[in-house]
């Protein structure tokens, strides 16, 4: 089910499409689900309390504790999840992190990282700061993958019911490019995404170097955090 959490008119998606394919939370809140993905949003410089749908999002994340086997928080949603679960304040970088970064696999035996190389690439596009030291000191999360430049990329609660991805493994080849062009058009003077364009030349078409690990991350989450943990009959979810 695709959920709407903001009822304002969308700037990018036709109303007919939203009405056809998206549901209101009130229509599904009495059901149980295998998994939940909360996507990112361009809200890196906005305080949680200033996000118009913050209260509604908190309601959904709290509901998920008793109705969803495993929740995946992506990019800005990772910040939101850390705020809800650990009461961590928003930490913001001075400059936007944008590019494709190398990451170290910190636990080769963890199910989420099964099949991952010792080092792998993944794109980031955010102002949010995810310091490994800070998360280690203030949470009980398993820190699974980090980057010297980008900080924590992947972390999980020990029961794997909450998984945090601070980057964008789902990005297509041209997503960072489109964001870069958008920011240029808005007069933001963005830096060229790091390690993305051939020879760092925005005139040359970029190529995805992270796609295989992106697919592996989602398939591992679905297999080891969702389906192998979910009761056969979802009606018995609360009995776990």
Describe the protein.
- By secondary structure, the protein is an alpha/beta fold.
- The chain has helices at 15-21, 54-67, 76-86, 132-138, 175-185, 211-227; strands spanning 2-4, 22-24, 33-38, 68-74, 92-105, 119-128, 142-147, 151-156, 162-165.
- The strands form 2 sheets. It has a 7-stranded mixed β-sheet, sandwiched between helices. A two-stranded parallel ribbon has the order 1-2.
- A hairpin with a 3-residue loop joins β7 (142-147) and β8 (151-156).
Order of helices and strands: EHEEHEHEEHEEEHH
DSSP strand content: 15-25%
Which whole number gives the mean pLDDT?
A: 91
Tally of individual helices: 6
Please mark out the parts with pLDDT under 50 across 5 or more consecutive residues, or reply none: none
Secondary structural class: alpha/beta
Helix content: 25-40%
What order do the strands of the largest sheet run in, or round the barrel if closed?
A: 3-4-9-8-7-5-6
Quick one: biggest sheet?
7 strands, mixed
Distance between the termini: 23 Å
Number of strands: 9
Task: Tell me the radius of gyration.
Answer: 18 Å
Described by the principal axes of the CA atoms, the overall outline is globular
């Amino acid at each position: 089910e695709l959920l709407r959490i903001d009822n304002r008119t969308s700037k990018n998606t036709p109303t007919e499409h939203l009405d056809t394919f998206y549901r209101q939370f009130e229509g599904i809140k009495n059901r149980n689900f295998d998994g939940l993905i909360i996507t990112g949003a361009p809200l890196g410089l906005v305080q949680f309390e200033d996000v118009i749908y913050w209260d509604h999002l908190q309601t959904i994340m709290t509901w998920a504790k008793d109705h969803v086997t495993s929740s995946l928080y992506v990019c800005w949603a990772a910040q939101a999840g850390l705020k809800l679960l650990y009461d961590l304040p928003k930490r913001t970088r001075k400059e936007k992190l944008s590019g494709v970064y190398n990451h170290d696999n910190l636990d080769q035996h963890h199910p989420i990282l099964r099949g991952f190389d010792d080092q792998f690439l993944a794109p980031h596009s955010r102002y949010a700061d995810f310091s490994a030291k800070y998360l280690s000191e203030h949470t009980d999360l398993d820190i699974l993958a980090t980057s010297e430049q980008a900080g924590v990329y992947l972390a999980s609660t020990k029961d794997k019911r909450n998984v945090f991805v601070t980057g964008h493994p789902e990005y297509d080849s041209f997503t960072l490019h489109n964001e870069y062009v958008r920011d240029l058009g808005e007069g933001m003077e963005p830096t060229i995404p790091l390690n993305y364009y051939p020879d760092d030349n925005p005139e040359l078409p970029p190529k995805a170097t992270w796609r295989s690990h992106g697919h592996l991350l989602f398939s591992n989450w679905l297999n080891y955090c969702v389906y192998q943990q979910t009761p056969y009959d979802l009606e018995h979810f609360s009995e776990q």
